[in-house]
Each structure stands twice: as C-alpha cells, then as structure tokens.
Backbone:
C-alpha cells in the first residue's frame, strides 16, 4: 500500500496507472474509519483494479463553532484498516497541500445546498463540494463511492459532478448500522453511553415511519409529527430537522409518492447526528 501526500505525486501515480489501462475506484473520507467507510472500500475493491482512499479532515466544511479541532484523527489505525482491505493508495494530504495560501476558488451548488443540513450548517456544502472537486482532480478516478448515510451530501455532489462535467461515475452505497440500528459515524465516538442508547430512537423512528407509509399513510406532515413526537418522548435529543423530501431532488413532499427520503438531524449534547431512510413507493 502506497501513501501519497502531495497532489502532484497523486496525479502522476494515477496517470501511470491510467496509461496501463487500470480502472480506478475512489473513496473520499475524513478518516477515523469504521465499517461504514469500509463497506465503500470493499465495493470499490470488487469493482476496480486500483482502489484509492483519501483521508482529509476538511476545515472548509466545519463552521467556527463546530468540532474541527476535536474531530477524531487516527492515522495509524486507519492505515492498518486500509491495508487489511487491500487499498492500493492512501491519499493523505495536509491542510497546506489542499489549501495553499492564496486559494480563492470555491464550488457553490445552488438551492439544494442551503436546505436541510445546509440550513443549520451554512457554508458546509460549499466546503464539501470544493474539497471533493479538488480530490477528484487529484485522483481522477473512474468511479467515486459515497455513502447514503450522508444523503444530502450525495445529492449535492452528484449535482456538482453533473454540472461541472467531472468525468467520473458515482455510486452511492447503503447505510451501515450497528447491531442495534444506530447508523455508524465517526461522531458516535463523542456520545456518552446514555446518549448512545437514546440515539437509537432515530433509526427506530425512521423504520416505523417507513412501515406506516408502506401500509398507506401519505401525509408527510403527519409522518414528520410522529417522528418528532417519538424523539421528544424517548430522548433528550434536540431536533434540528425532520423532513420528507424527494430522494433525487430534495424537494419537500406534501403527499408522499415516488422516491422518498426521510432525513433527520438531532443534537445529543453537542453531538449532531444525522440519519435517513430512502425507499420507493
Ligand atoms: P466521512 O468520513 O464521514 O466524511 O465519510 C466518508 C464517506 O463514508 C461518505 O461518503 C459517507 O457517506 C460514508 N459513510 C459514513 N458513514 C457511513 C455509514 N454508516 N454507512 C455508509 N456509508 C457511510
């Protein structure tokens, strides 16, 4: 497994591999790897001859009040996990490498970046889109793998890739959950035992909502109210949002139909957890 830390070296390594006709799969992450990330790596491994994993905690997607400094960094453990999954290259750039002084260019995706998570995290998706654009230009993969866990992020990035003609295919992989249903996240490390137990209400609420919809409920507001009530009754979580939207466009739904995404964000203490469920009626 090769470790590459500069954009130039990354690009020249990829050029050599491309000339040799290799198919390249790419999994961008912020590290602190868990089974969710590894599911993306395994899929990339099955579908490509070369797998590149990037680890970069991107300061541009954290607001000043958020957890950039505290975000877990586990280079040694991550390297071991990546090696075990037969990753070929880890791209591990420094902040200075990704944002050398004088950087002035950003990628803004209109409309869909300002709703849901974008509402309470202004600038977040600008940071995400900019760094993923830069990573795609560094790794130049055939296919990039994203997780459904970050549903809005996947929609925003697909839009960016389409709009800016990035020559890359996108695959979105299902959410990996713990045995108790909690969606795996690097931020789960921040939760106390009690908060972790309480946070199970998120996946349970989503699962119940899907059941109700599949058995006939079509009123989005009613579904949202039921989930909100359940979270309030069973936990100390502070709800940021619960929303029923079209899974492809993120347009809010009144009457439930088509490809449905129920997404939510809830604070447990200072930790903001997100979860969602997606299904077609
Ligand atoms: P992050 O390191 O949180 O930026 O995540 C890197 C990639 O892993 C993103 O595409 C995430 O959506 C994906 N990911 C994170 N957690 C999970 C999970 N529990 N299941 C599936 N994919 C995930």
Residues:
């Amino acid at each position: 497994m090769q470790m590459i830390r500069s954009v130039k070296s990354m690009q020249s390594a990829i050029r050599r591999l491309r000339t040799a006709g290799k198919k390249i799969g790419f999994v961008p992450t912020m590290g602190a790897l868990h089974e969710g990330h590894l599911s993306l790596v395994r899929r990339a491994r099955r579908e490509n001859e070369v797998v590149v994993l990037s680890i970069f905690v991107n300061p541009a997607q954290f607001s000043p009040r958020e957890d950039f400094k505290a975000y877990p960094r586990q280079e040694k453990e991550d390297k071991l996990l990546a090696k075990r999954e037969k990753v070929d290259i880890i791209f591990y750039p420094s902040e200075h490498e990704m944002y050398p002084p004088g950087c002035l260019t950003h990628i803004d995706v209109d409309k869909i970046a300002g709703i849901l998570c974008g509402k309470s995290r202004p600038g977040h998706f600008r940071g995400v889109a900019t760094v993923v654009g830069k990573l795609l230009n560094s790794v130049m993969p055939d296919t990039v793998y994203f997780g459904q866990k970050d549903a809005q992020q996947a929609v925003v990035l697909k839009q960016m890739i389409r709009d800016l003609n990035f020559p890359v295919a996108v695959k979105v992989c299902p959410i990996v959950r713990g045995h108790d249903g909690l969606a795996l996240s690097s931020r789960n490390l921040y939760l106390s035992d009690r908060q972790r137990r309480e946070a199970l209400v998120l996946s349970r609420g989503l699962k119940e909502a899907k059941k109700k919809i599949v058995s006939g409920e079509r009123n989005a507001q009613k579904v949202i109210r039921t989930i909100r009530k359940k979270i309030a009754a069973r936990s100390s979580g502070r709800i940021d949002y619960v929303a029923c939207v079209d899974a492809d466009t993120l347009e809010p739904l009144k009457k439930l139909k088509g490809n449905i995404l129920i997404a939510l964000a809830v604070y447990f203490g200072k930790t903001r957890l997100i979860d969602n469920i997606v299904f077609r009626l």
Notes: The radius of gyration is 19 Å. The first helix runs from residue 7 to 19. The pocket of adenosine monophosphate is lined by residues 29-30, 36-37, 39-40, 146-147, 149-150, 173, 175-176, 183-186 (CB under 6 Å). The longest strand covers residues 259-268.
